[in-house]
Write a structure and sequence with these properties.
Layout lengths: L5 H11 L12 E10 L7 E2 L8 E2 L1 H13 L3 E11 L10 H14 L3 E4 L5 H11 L2 E4 H12 L3 H16 L2 H4 L6 E2 L10 E2 H35 L5 E6 L5 H9 L16 E6 L5 E6 L9 H6 L1 H8 L3 E7 L5 H14 L11 E6 L6 H14 L2 E2 L8 H14 L2 E7 L4 H10 L1 E7 L5 E7 L4 H8 L5 E2 L3
Parallel strand pairs: 1-4, 1-5, 5-6, 9-11, 9-12, 12-13, 13-14
Antiparallel strand pairs: 2-3, 7-8, 10-11, 15-17, 15-18, 16-17
Helix pairs in contact: 5-6, 6-8
């Protein structure tokens, strides 16, 4: 048999190599979005590293989300595609042939920015920028850019700056290739002076220390605010969920607030708290928090911990899910993983969490019927924050969950017990009140667990009668 010509072999390999499927979009800064598919997982689902393999997401879904992240800051995504990476390379992640192939794409599209939806080491980032003659951002860098644009409060800006500086501190090798450059110092005092990279690292470290001190003050202020709210008999409810699940729209619908909401990733970063009126006449305080995402940078989880403490301290957590998104199940796993990182074991605390299945208005009749049946089976609440569908049922579910932790007690008050009456109205929820003979007032109240002993000391335990629900 005639041996095959080397040129023919090369031609066959090129034909067999998977091509990059491109999607043309419009925008401003010329950008290419690439989603690497590692190993043999190109046609299978891959596990999100941040969730310990719990979250399964198809490569196409990952690519679509990366494009959405780019669109969130108005980048001009000229092309996007999946890039097979059979064996990741330490220097560039992609193989040399693929880097060269992509270089042609960068030139053809005149790309100024390349987003790689995968963690890149500083060396990989620097080498790819050199090869492609364009700015390169990995997933963490892109999310940090979005957060930098979206944070508006002083607290939010401090948290983003801390995350960004922590990220950049490990990447100074990319920013400074002239490591022989030195600033200050005298050779006769024992060695060279301080290099530029050392100077930058020291300045960044000093700024990080300042921000951390300021955030500690923010944390103390938030703790004081929580203590003041705890003195008021209103339980705390927190909204959590994957980014763009509709949390802010639901927050506005439940509270009548006007928090910024938009059909885009990370529309809201700064936490907001409003009162929530429940069907039985009781109240709660509802907080809107930053959205979660798969592969959430560890710098951001650490930086936003002061904000996420609102979730840790909440009596009830509403986990909002976008049921119109095909990746809803994997998004749920990602949120549960982030909550677990905060110390909240969602599966072990079912009475503390309500799953809110949002965007029912985007489902067709068949899907709506099927998902409504699933929601009933797992005790989730199907809603549409846009149309108001299911919101009454959600308020009722919130009230039931909150009341489960509160004892309902009946007590008789004499006419001269005004101070006790005032304490009850300030610290408990008065469900019913009726006047009896001789100026006696009968109260039916719900008592938070932490106020039960105090009430018993003030009124006397013999006067407190557990009411039948």
């Amino acid at each position: 048999m005639r041996p095959e010509d080397p040129k023919e072999l090369k031609s066959k390999k090129e034909r067999a190599r998977p091509e990059i499927t491109l999607t043309r979009l419009q925008g401003r800064v010329s950008t290419i979005v690439l989603a690497p598919v590692l190993g043999k997982t190109q046609s299978r689902k891959v596990a999100a590293p941040s969730s310990g393999g719990a979250s399964l997401r198809s490569p196409q879904a990952r690519l679509q989300e990366a494009v959405g992240l780019a669109a969130a800051i108005n980048l001009d995504v000229k092309a996007s595609g999946l890039v097979p990476v059979p064996s990741p390379r330490p220097a560039t992640l992609f193989g040399s042939g693929k880097v060269e192939e992509l270089t042609g794409l960068m030139r053809a599209e005149e790309a100024e920015l390349v987003i790689v939806d995968h963690p890149l080491t500083p060396v990989q980032q620097r080498n790819l920028e050199t090869a492609w003659n364009a700015k390169v951002l990995d997933r963490t860098g892109l999310i940090l850019e979005i957060f930098g644009q979206r944070a508006h409060t002083r607290e939010g800006r401090l948290q983003v700056e801390l995350a960004h500086l922590t990220y950049q501190k490990s990447r100074l090798v990319r920013s400074w290739t002239h490591l022989e450059r030195q600033r200050g110092g005298f050779g006769f005092l024992g060695g060279p002076g301080e290099t530029q990279i050392e100077t930058d690292r020291r300045i960044i470290g000093e700024r990080i220390d300042v921000i951390r001190k300021e955030l500690e003050q923010v944390k103390r202020t938030r703790a004081l605010h929580r203590e003041s709210r705890q003195r008021v008999p209103y339980p705390a409810v927190a909204l959590v969920g994957y980014t763009n699940a509709g949390k802010s729209t639901l927050f506005n619908a439940l509270t009548g607030a006007s928090v910024f909401s938009e059909d885009t990733l990370f529309a809201t970063l700064d936490p907001t708290i409003r009162s929530l009126h429940l069907p039985g006449g009781s109240k709660a305080v509802l907080s809107d928090t930053v959205g979660f995402i798969s592969n959430l940078p560890t710098q951001l989880v650490a930086a936003f911990r002061a904000t996420l403490e609102e979730v840790l301290e909440a009596d009830l957590i509403l986990h909002v899910r976008d049921m119109a998104d095909h990746a809803s199940a994997s998004q749920r796993a990602d949120v549960i993983a982030v909550l677990g990182g905060l110390g909240i074991e969602a599966e072990a605390e079912p009475d503390r969490i309500i799953e809110v299945w949002n965007k029912a208005d985007l489902l067709d009749d068949a899907a709506l019927k099927r998902i409504a049946g699933e929601a009933k089976r797992v005790s989730a609440v199907l809603v549409s924050a846009v149309t108001g569908f299911g919101l009454d049922a959600l308020r009722a579910a919130i009230e039931r969950k909150l009341n489960r932790a509160r004892q309902t007690i009946e007590i008789m008050l004499k006419p001269d017990e005004g101070s006790l009456s005032n304490w009850i109205y300030e610290n408990c929820e008065v469900v019913a009140r009726s006047a009896l003979d001789e100026g006696i007032t009968a109260l039916r109240i719900r008592v938070p667990p932490e106020k039960r002993d105090r009430l018993a000391r003030l009124a006397g335990p013999a006067r407190l009668r557990l009411a039948a629900e």
